[in-house]
């Protein structure tokens, strides 16, 4: 299991003074084990969403320092903005990202809340999964009345904070600290300046919907149940909160939403419901914006949805899918949308990772031809395999767009998507093969003075050697698997591209045989002979299968040329 990783997304009540924001983010970046991912200020809301990730203890420390600094340099008694707020640090949620449960994150949230309440004299309310009262699970309930209502609320026993004194802090206000699942803050732009009309769309879309009325939906009498509670007409999207507002900075009204469960209501579904509601009210959606970061899969799901809606193949590159998502949602209407700044996985990427894949064609060839032994045959085999399945994927995509084959686009889209998946997996192994070789070199260089050092060096060399077998063995498996797609494209694909399927087969067979050479040369140094025997037997069988498939595919190609 990897290291636990949590995200923190504090919202500070300042969006106009970069100097103040810099002081706060400096505190976050001063903590080892934390990476600042995003700072997203809003002038109209006078609010900034900051995103950082790291090891739980480090994140708690960074969050405390940020809250402390915000309480020193933001004066809530002078704050004005479009967004509901009650504190210098308005909310500070902790979110599980990897290798940690929500229950564990809740404990860290309470640790942070206790520390802030005790040391900074700020009233702290725990919300979402960290709430101590059912009614405080909802942030809107805690924030009711906003900053201006705090003196009156704090005087009431039922509003005694979870941590900190029940005493009004005029400068810092109060803060909600919580633990929650990943939330997407999402705004949809309308071609209107009317907040009332934007609210109408928000009510159509959000889960809470609107109050039910008799007759006129705006002025009619509110319909109530037997307990006197107002009945509501639910909106179209569950796990969505939303309101309409006017953003002077952009000169348009927006539907401002929080998507609290993207599995229940995906981004593209929420967008489409906004479009549907706006159209029914004589409005038009002109674009949208993501506040903070978004998971890669959310954008990929969106891009694929719109590709399928256009009856186009989804078996295109990740970059192309993202481009379609951005253009379809109009995420670049109000400003540039940089995937490497807005997608969380891209922000977390090691800039030094996959150096070979970052090279251009000449650079990769030059690096291979250099006097260094890596990259070598294993990396080249993986890359040749990637090129082979890329050719088959190209045939699938061309077939999906072939005139007269419109009713078969989905069939070829599925083949192309499978090809893209295999291509990406093989490309990943280009660098992994070189990394495995480097692990052997690192093990060889370990000290071998005393018995303990010798034993550790031996253990490391055996582990590295096994890895140097496993990587090319995986290349063999993937390249052989790719031949199924290549053969299908030779059989049913666009006949104008039949030769490309043939070249793909030649590449795939080369990848299988080339990777097997690496498996065999590294097997001689591994002591686990049972493993070696199994791998060599399976490898030999795979080369036979690749040979037979190549013959079949080339025969198909020749027969159609």
Describe it.
With 561 residues, the protein is α+β, with helices and mostly antiparallel strands. It has three domains: 5-179, Formiminotransferase, N-terminal subdomain (Formiminotransferase-cyclodeaminase, Chain B, domain 1, 2-Layer Sandwich); 184-348, Formiminotransferase, C-terminal subdomain (Alpha-Beta Plaits, 2-Layer Sandwich), CATH 3.30.70.670; 361-560, Four Helix Bundle (Hemerythrin (Met), subunit A) (Up-down Bundle). 51% of the residues lie in helices and 14% in strands. The protein is built from 17 helices and 13 strands. It has helices spanning 18-29, 56-73, 102-120, 139-142, 150-154, 195-205, 267-280, 296-309, 318-329, 339-342, 344-348, 361-369, 377-400, 409-444, 451-492, 498-523, 529-560, and strands at 5-8, 11-12, 34-42, 47-54, 89-98, 124-128, 175-179, 184-190, 210-211, 232-233, 240-247, 252-259, 285-291. The strands form three sheets. Strands 1, 2, 3, 4, 5, 6 and 7 form a seven-stranded mixed beta sheet that branches. The protein has a four-stranded antiparallel beta sheet with strand order 11-12-8-13. α13 (377-400) packs antiparallel against α14 and α15 runs parallel beside α17. The longest helix is centred in the C-terminal third of the chain and has 42 residues, at 451-492. It is globular. The chain starts with a strand and ends with a helix.
